[in-house]
Amino acid sequence: MVTHQLTGTRRLEGKVAVVTGAGSGATGVGTGQAISTLFAREGANVLLVDRDAARAADTLRQIESEGGVASVFTADVTKSAECKAMAEAAVARYGGLHVLVNNVGILGKGTVVTVDEDEWDQVMTVNLKSMVLTSKHAVPVMAAAGGGSIINISSISALRSIGITGTVPYTVSKGGAMTLTTSMAVQHGRQGVRVNCIAPGFLYTPMVAGTMTPEWREARRNASPLGTEGTAWDVAWACVYLASDEARWVTGAVLPVDGGTLCTTALSAFHDMR
Ligand SMILES: NC(=O)c1ccc[n+]([C@@H]2O[C@H](COP(=O)([O-])OP(=O)(O)OC[C@H]3O[C@@H](n4cnc5c(N)ncnc54)[C@H](O)[C@@H]3O)[C@@H](O)[C@H]2O)c1
């Protein structure tokens, strides 16, 4: 089974989608790139938002080579004016904005004792404040057209801490993404705007690939009950569902895409399941 094959089912036909962090690092496929590619295959017009134009252009080449419709919008999603321009560009280029995926994320390390204060501020701004700013400008456009779907990319590390050296800025920002999701779902439900959250497990993507030894990659794979490695495509398929009208009665949900990692404990991972 290859999850990223062409499907031709057109589950997002007629929708305009904005994906932030739609580019990808040098090694492999990132979640933003996979989400954008599947959205285009499913018939959406996709605005590829990234502060790195060259990375987004790679995603665009992939989509255009398959006959999909997309374009690059270069923006830093930590800047409100650029998020406003992003929402306006979706409407100007494609006539609306129905789906927003808040996918931008960076790592941040340390415990409360060791954390660097500037790093804390930067990670909270890039990972969490950006979701507020993009949504601030996207929700009114969606609401005016009768509704839409927003998907916030969090992480299971918000619910299960990884390691004693700590990733406090990262995990707290991802916990914030979950809380933001439930708040937004309540506040914008009557405007027809659904807001959901995906909590990926230990994926092998460009964000982490450069920092990983083969042993650590194997340990991450082994951490899930399925014992298989997660990829960006696994997250992207979940996004297709939440973006589509198939999920019309699903809002405020946190969906783990983690091979079952949240169901297990360190004990089972390191003993029974080997
Ligand atoms: N890889 C994993 O194991 C894993 C696990 C859980 C969650 N996630 C989450 O998935 C998301 C994507 O991860 P990835 O590995 O695909 O990332 P990636 O590093 O491959 O891609 C992220 C993209 O975001 C862009 N970007 C960064 N800051 C930006 C900003 N301020 N404005 C606009 N664009 C910006 C980068 O240029 C890059 O192209 C993140 O939110 C991450 O936290 C990843």
Give me the secondary-structure category.
alpha/beta
Major β-sheet strand ordering: 3-2-1-4-5-6-7
What is the ordering of alpha helices and beta strands?
Answer: EHEHEHEHEHEHHHEH
Q: What is the typical, i.e. mean, pLDDT?
A: 93
Structural topology:
Blueprint: E1 16-20, H1 31-41, E2 45-50, H2 53-65, E3 69-74, H3 80-94, E4 99-102, H4 117-144, E5 148-153, H5 168-188, E6 193-200, H6 206-209, H7 214-222, H8 232-243, E7 254-257, H9 266-270
Parallel strand pairs: 1-2, 1-4, 2-3, 4-5, 5-6, 6-7
Task: Write structural notes for this entry.
The chain has 274 residues and is α/β, with parallel strands linked by helices. It has a single domain, classed as NAD(P)-binding Rossmann-like Domain (Rossmann fold), CATH 3.40.50.720. 43% of the residues lie in helices and 14% in strands. The protein is globular. The mean pLDDT is 93. Nicotinamide-adenine-dinucleotide (NAD) binds next to helix 1 and helix 6.
Summed up:
The chain has 274 residues and is α/β, with parallel strands linked by helices. The chain has one domain (16-270): Rossmann fold (3-Layer(aba) Sandwich). It contains nine helices and seven strands, in the order βαβαβαβαβαβαααβα.
